[in-house]
Amino acid sequence: MDAMSAAAIDSPPPAADILDTPQAGARAIRASAVRTLGYVVGSLLAVISAPLLVRHLGVVDFGRYYTVISLVALVGGVTDIGRATVAVREYTTRTGADRHAFMRQILGARLLLSAVGVLGATGFAALAGYGEELVIGTALAGAGLVVTVVAHTFGVPLSVQLRMGWLTGIDLAGKVLTLALVVVLILISSGVVGFLAIAIPAGLVTLVLTTAVTRRDIPLRPSLKTAELRRLLRDALPLAVATILNTLYARVVIIIMSLIATGLVTGYFGTAARVVEVAVGVPVALIGTTFPIFARAARDDQARLRYVLQRVGEVALIGGVWMTLVMAVGAGAIADVLVGGTQSQPVADVLRVMALALVPVSLNVTWQTALVALHRYRDLLVVNGLALASIVVLTLALVPPLGADGAALAVVGGEALLATMSAVALLRARRALGLEVRLVWRVAGATALALAAAGVPPMPDAARIVVVTLVYLGALTALRAFPGEVRDAFLQRLRGGSPSA
User: Fold this and answer.
1) In the chain, where the domains are located
2) What is the mean pLDDT of residues 403-423?
3) Using the 8-state DSSP alphabet, how is residue 13 labeled?
4) Chain centroid, CA 487 distance in Å
5) Contact of 425 with 371, CB cutoff 8 Å
6) Least confident stretch, 25-29, 104-108, 189-193, 272-276
7) Over 50: is that where the pLDDT of 230 sits?
8) I want to staple 117 with a disulfide (CB 3.0 to 4.6 A). Which of 79, 359, 450, 468 is the partner?
């Protein structure tokens, strides 16, 4: 290695220094907005493709399709074992050659473990009697997962440096390609396997674009040094197990239903769960953008950490309640678009129940992000383990008598329990992080007004969504419920000014 190359590795990227400046918060707010807007656009693309898929495959085959997608996503979370979170945190806190070596280890670990996981998922599909078609589909969707995991690892510098424009654009390119391929496969009357294989070209596009942007910020060659890999896994073992449990928790309902419920009931729940899954991505995108700031504040400044946690928690509460309102009052319209006909009503009923999970989900993302930044891995392990146990018990107890509605209740109960336990764990970790609750009554008042407006006079579900949104946001504005930093950051952006401290 020549001297110039060594210097390049040993010097931290200047863009990462934004995390140490007073402008980091305002930039993170704008980056979160960009990321969330991009996610919303991507979700709209999914909204276009989902009804096309449901109507082309039918509820039963879509349930089979979603079962495989859930299985592969489960494998992705289990084999990741917290590496994605650790990669962002360590890239944020390390510099130079140390950062370079660590990212090579992360890349090698994620590549190896995801490949092994895909082989395991394919074997499970065969042993569970999914049939030849779904076994092949599992292998193809799994191959796409491996490519996507590599692409996301190469995208870590974009997250840390808050370059959300690039990250969002790359994600949208993959989603546009996915939609185009869905349309093509429908036109040629493809079966389930073809749609599961879409993950491969979509992942390759994401990988190529990400590598082109970040090739100078991250090593492109993986490392599989056994001793270092063992140390890496051992140091974050509690986080790894907690991540596995969280992933199981999020997917276990549909997997259990594929074994104990009819294909039609599983299809009802799977269709509704796909909508909720899209909605859950909003707080993940919004709050995930702030993780580098959480990590730096947890290392250097407890007062700053409390400040960030308070403001992000307020935004999570406001957004979670809004998503619950929209899904609850618009469930009928959403189900009509997705399914139509007589099968739309059961899907709408499931959606109305699952809407209640979106508030605790939003808060969970916030509180568990703080716990990861504080290295409270054992707390994460305990709360996610208890949540997993509860949702398994609830699913087994409620699905036989209540069907898809019982599965939805199991999800809501599990999320509520997880939110409660995460809050307690955070307070035990740092009592100074106790959140102020002055916002709660304002949100409750705005919610009551929005629900009242949606029912008077009677109106179509699509109109209710608009009315609920306008009344809820209007009431929050009148009650001065929005965090001042969020309002000021956007006003400064509109005026073309520089962000304040």
Assistant:
1) 21-235, 255-486
2) 91
3) P
4) 25
5) yes
6) 25-29
7) yes
8) 79
Output phi, psi for 150, to 5 deg: -65, -45
How many residues are listed for the chain in this entry? 501
Q: How far apart are CA 410 and CA 354, in angstroms?
A: 9
Written as one string, the DSSP assignment of 165-229 is HHHHHHHHHHHHHHHHHHHHHHHTT--HHHHHTTHHHHHHHHHHHHHHHHTTTS--S----HHHH
- Which has more confidence, 229 or 420? 420
Residue 299 CA, distance from chain mean position: 25
| Global model pTM greater than 0.90 | no
Angle at 326 between CA 426 and CA 363, to 5 degrees: 5
Residues in contact with 413: Cβ distance below 8 Å, sequence separation at least 6, in sequence order? 390, 391, 394
DSSP designation for 343:
G
Least confident of 93-97, 267-271, 377-381: 93-97
Closest to 91 measured CA to CA, from 295, 332, 308: 295
DSSP 227-282: HHHHHHHHHTHHHHHHHHHHHHHHHHHHHHHHHHS-HHHHHHHHHHHHHHHHHHHH
Residue type, 138: T
Q: Which residue has the tokens 């509520």?
A: 416
365-410 tens-digit pLDDT: 888 888 888 878 788 888 888 888 899 999 999 999 999 899 999 9
Cα dihedral 311→313→318→320 (10° resolution)? 150
Distance CA 409, CA 386 (A): 17
C-alpha 69/C-alpha 61 separation (Å) is 12
Looking up tokens 């402008």 gives 23
Mean pLDDT check: name the lowest of 85-89, 119-123, 171-175, 185-189. Answer: 85-89
Do 421 and 267 touch, CB atoms closer than 8 A? no
Output 276-280 pairs: Cβ under 8 A, ≥24 positions apart. Answer: 276/327, 276/351, 276/354, 276/355, 276/357, 276/358, 276/411, 278/43, 278/46, 278/47, 279/43, 279/323, 279/327, 279/358, 280/358, 280/361
Q: Is the peptide bond before 457 cis (omega within 30 degrees of 0)?
A: yes
Spell 427-446 as b/e; 16+ CB within 10 A means b: eeebeebebeeebeebbeeb
Angle of CA points 42, 73, 296, to nearest 5°: 75
